[in-house]
Amino acid sequence: RLGVVTADRLSVLDWQWSFTVSIIQNSTQDCCLVALCKQYALLPRNFCVGCALLGMRRRQWFFSSVMRLFLRCLRLARRRHYMFLKNVSELCSYWKLCTKSLLYNSLTNSDVVIDSLFEPIYWIVDNVTRWFGVVFVVLVIVLTSSIVLIVYICVLPIILQTYPLRWIVWHISYGHWNLIMIIFHYYKAASTPPGFSPQTKTAIPAVAICRKCIAPKPARTHHCSICNRCILKMDHHCPWLNNCVGHFNHRYFFSFCFFMTLGCLYCSISSREMFWNAYNAVESYYQNPPPVFTFQEKMFHKSIIYLWALCSSVALALGALTLWHAMLITRSETSIERHINKKEQARLKKKGRRFRNPYSYGKLNNWRIFLGVEKRRHWIIRVLLPSSHLPYGDGMVWQTPHFISSKKSVLPV
C-alpha cells in the first residue's frame, strides 16, 4: 500500500523521478526492511518513509535545478561568445571596407604608402622651413659677407704684395666679377616670384585639379606645401632662398649655385698656401715654450683657417648640388619630374616600351632654352654677364621655341 500511495503522490512529478518511483512501487521488501530496522532500533521510531522520500526528492530536484541552470548558462555563454565574435568580425570587415573605399587608388604603391606614413614629418619640416626661411637667408648673407671681409682684409693684401702684376690683375678682375654674379643671382632668385598657377577658370589647358588649391593645374605645375600655392614648373622649395624654385627664377637659382661654387673653389685654391702656414702656426701654439704671436697674427691665422674650411666644405656640397641640377637641365627635367619620369620609365619598360620626355629637345637645345640663348652673343650678355631676361614661355603652355630647329611640338599634357 505504501508503494501504491507513494506512486500516486509522485505521479505529478517530472519524468526524471519515474525511475525512483518504479523502484518504490515494485519493492515491498524495502518497507519490511524499514520495519525490521525500527524493531531492532537501527532506525529511530519516528522515521517516516514519506519524509525520507520527500527529502530525497528535494535533493534530487535541487541537484537537477542546479545542473539545468548550469547547462543553460553554458549554452548562453556559448551563444554570447559566438555573437561577440560575429559582431567583431562584422565590425572589422566594415572598417576595412571603409578604409579601402576612402584610400583606394589604382596608382597606389609602396611610394604612396611611405609618403603617407611620413606626412607628419613633412608637416613639421614644412612649418619649420616656413618660419626659419628668413633665418637661413640671414645666415647666407652673414657667411658670405664674412668670407668677403676676410678676403679683403687678409688675402688680397698678400696678393698685392707678393704676386706679379698679371696675377694681381687677374685676381682682382675675376674675384670682383664672381662676387657681382653671386650677389646678383642670389638677389634675383630670392626676390623673383617663381610663377603661380591661376586660381580662376581660364582657357589655358590643365592636366589635373589640385586637391589642396581646388584649382586647375597646367602641365609641369606642382603644389608647394610651404608656399601653399601651385608653382609653375616647380623644382623644389629652397630654404636658403626662402622661396620656391620655379619657372621664372630657376635660371637665377642655378646660376647662383654655379657661381657660388666657382667662388668657393677660387678662395680655397688661392688661400691653400696661407692655410698650411696658418695651420702650422696654430699647431705651434701648444709647443713648450710657445712661439710669440701678437693678437693680430693669431686672428689672421684663425681667419685663414675659417676661410679655407668653410669654402672647401661649401664647394663640395654645393658643387654636388650644381652637378645634379646640371644633369636635370641637360634632360630638361626638374627634381620632381625626375622622380615621376623614373617611375614612368620603369612602368613602360615592363611593357616593352620606351619612355621619351616630351619636353626635351636634345642636350644643347635644352641648355639654350633654359638659359634663354637665342643668338650667339647671348652666351656672353645673358650667361657671363648679369641679365634679367625672362625665360621662354609663360610656364603654362609648352610649345616649341622659335629658335629651335626641331619640328616636334610639346603638348600641354
What do these coordinates show?
- There is one protein chain.
- The protein is 64% helix and 4% strand.
- Helix 8 packs across helix 10 (295-330).
- The strands form 3 sheets. Strands 1-2 form a two-stranded antiparallel sheet. Strands 3-4 form a two-stranded antiparallel sheet.
- It is mostly helical.
- The chain is flat and about 135 Å long.
- It has 13 helices and 6 strands.
- The protein has helices spanning 2-10, 18-25, 28-39, 49-103, 110-117, 119-162, 165-191, 250-270, 272-283, 295-330, 335-350, 363-371, 378-384; strands at 208-209, 216-217, 221-224, 229-232, 236-238, 243-245.
Class by SSE composition: mainly alpha
Number of strands: 6
Helical region count?
13
Radius of gyration: 46 Å
* Poorly predicted runs: 1-30, 36-43, 407-413
Average of pLDDT? 81
Write the element-wise H/E pattern from the N-terminal end onward: HHHHHHHEEEEEEHHHHHH
In percent terms, what proportion of residues is strand? under 5%
Roughly what percent helix?
55-70%
Basic shape: flat
Per-chain topology:
Blueprint lengths: L1 H9 L7 H8 L2 H12 L9 H55 L6 H8 L1 H44 L2 H27 L16 E2 L6 E2 L3 E4 L4 E4 L3 E3 L4 E3 L4 H21 L1 H12 L11 H36 L4 H16 L12 H9 L6 H7 L29
Antiparallel strand pairs: 1-2, 3-4, 5-6
Helix pairs in contact: 1-2, 6-10, 7-8, 8-10, 9-10
